[in-house]
Design brief:
Helix content is 58%, strand content 5%. The protein has three helices and two strands, in the order H-E-E-H-H. Strands 1-2 form a two-stranded antiparallel sheet. The relative contact order is 0.12. The mean pLDDT is 77.
């Protein structure tokens, strides 16, 4: 898992959702900076969410027991 690529993708999606912003000095359009994206939309840490979901899945598999065949992907 490449952390940088996931972060870049997440910021790209948020920029697409929120669009461009007009610059107050030049009155032109500009991209929203990462800090502004974080202020507009608080995104939980994606790496923490991935680890949490893996742990939940492993917990389910651990509770199945020896009597069932577990599908591995």
């Amino acid at each position: 898992m490449d952390k940088r690529r996931l972060t870049v993708f997440g910021n790209k999606v948020l920029r697409r959702i929120f669009g461009s912003k007009t610059d107050e000095v030049t009155r032109g359009w500009r991209k929203i900076h990462n800090e502004e994206l974080n202020d507009l939309y608080y995104l939980p840490n994606i790496f923490w969410m991935i680890k949490l979901r893996k742990m939940v899945c492993e917990g389910h598999v651990g509770r199945i027991g020896q009597c069932r065949v577990v599908y591995r992907f």
